[in-house]
């Protein structure tokens, strides 16, 4: 692995090396390992996440060494550089038409894809459902037993290389039409109400105490979150700006995935 890493880093600094067979072989071996779950763009470590920047570099360089080709799936035709994943039955993954997962993404056994999209470099854990028209962007890390509801948009990230991918940890419920981008991390067992938008600059405000507590980029474990707004002054006047409100914590009675909707209903929140 260290030899492959060395080749990747050298090619990143000198793109002429992409013409060499040894470099192309090294890059393709990394994509194959991502596809099989033997390697990850980011991995948990001591309650934090480590980003393997050199692996992201391999993904970025995979595109220029690939040639465009026609992919025929029954009556459907695609024209792209990245092939589609195959052998879902052997992997224990349920894929409903018209779900698409790109080669180089990993789907652990037990994943269910409704008509949805999973991009290269993404990692999706067992028991997770990617619901209808939900998208999992490049390099996003989705934990186990997560529910990405209809129309959820999980942002991808390849560049800048030091940027962390968007991370949804185990046992989270992400409500319909939520958007989570720019490397935001949603910690374990959170419940995010419909329509919440989370970016690195979004104010995430805990309103459960006597005074608001504002954080950015990370949603604490077991939080129940809804969309909100706050007033901000601009030269032209004061206007409402979108934010996310932490209105409570999940109770032990809502630990089961089938009861996640109840965690929202307890706080009268839309699913």
Report on the structure:
This protein has helices at residues 2-13, 21-35, 53-65, 88-91, 260-265, and strands at 42-45, 48-51, 69-73, 76-80, 94-95, 100-101, 106-107, 112-113, 117-118, 123-124, 129-130, 135-136, 141-142, 147-148, 153-154, 167-168, 173-174, 179-180, 185-186, 191-192, 197-198, 204-206, 213-215, 218-219, 223-234, 237-249. The strands form 5 sheets. The protein has a 10-stranded mixed sheet with strand order 5-8-11-14-17-20-25-26-22-23. A 6-stranded parallel sheet has the order 6-9-12-15-18-21, with no helix packed on it. A 6-stranded parallel sheet has the order 7-10-13-16-19-24, with no helix packed on it. The chain folds into 2 domains: 2-65, Tetrahydrodipicolinate-N-succinyltransferase, N-terminal domain (Tetrahydrodipicolinate-N-succinyltransferase, Chain A, domain 1, Orthogonal Bundle), CATH 1.10.166; 80-265, Hexapeptide repeat proteins (UDP N-Acetylglucosamine Acyltransferase, domain 1, 3 Solenoid). It contains 5 helices and 26 strands. With 271 residues, the protein is of the alpha/beta class. The protein starts with a helix and ends in a 6-residue tail after the last helix. The model has no long low-confidence stretch (mean pLDDT 92). A hairpin with a 6-residue loop joins β22 (204-206) and β23. The chain is globular, with a radius of gyration of 20 Å. α1 packs across α2 (21-35), α1 (2-13) packs across α3 (53-65) and α2 (21-35) crosses α3 (53-65).
């Amino acid at each position: 692995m260290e030899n492959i890493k060395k080749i990747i880093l050298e090619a990143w600094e000198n793109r002429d090396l992409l013409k060499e067979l040894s470099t192309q072989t090294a890059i393709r071996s990394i994509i194959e390992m991502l596809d099989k779950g033997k390697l990850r763009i980011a991995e948990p470590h001591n309650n934090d996440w480590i980003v393997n920047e050199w692996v992201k570099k391999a993904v970025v360089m995979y595109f220029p060494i690939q040639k465009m080709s026609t992919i025929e799936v029954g009556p459907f035709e695609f024209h792209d550089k990245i092939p589609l994943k195959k052998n879902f039955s052997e992997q224990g993954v349920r894929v409903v038409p018209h779900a698409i997962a790109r080669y180089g993404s990993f789907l652990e056994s037990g994943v269910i894809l409704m008509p949805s999209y999973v991009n290269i470099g993404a990692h999706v854990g067992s028991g997770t459902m990617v619901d209808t028209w939900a998208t999992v962007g490049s390099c996003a890390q989705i934990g186990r037993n997560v529910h990405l509801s209809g129309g959820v948009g999980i942002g991808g990230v390849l560049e800048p290389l030091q940027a962390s991918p968007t991370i949804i940890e185990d046992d989270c419920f992400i409500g319909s039409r939520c958007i989570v981008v720019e490397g935001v991390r949603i910690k374990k067992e959170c419940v995010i109400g419909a329509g919440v938008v989370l970016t690195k600059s979004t104010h995430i405000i805990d309103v459960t105490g006597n005074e608001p507590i504002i954080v950015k980029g990370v949603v604490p474990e077991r939080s129940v979150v809804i969309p909100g707004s706050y007033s901000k002054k601009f030269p032209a006047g004061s206007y409402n700006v979108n934010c996310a409100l932490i209105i409570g914590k999940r109770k032990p009675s809502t630990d089961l995935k089938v009861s996640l909707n109840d965690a929202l209903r307890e706080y009268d929140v839309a699913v």
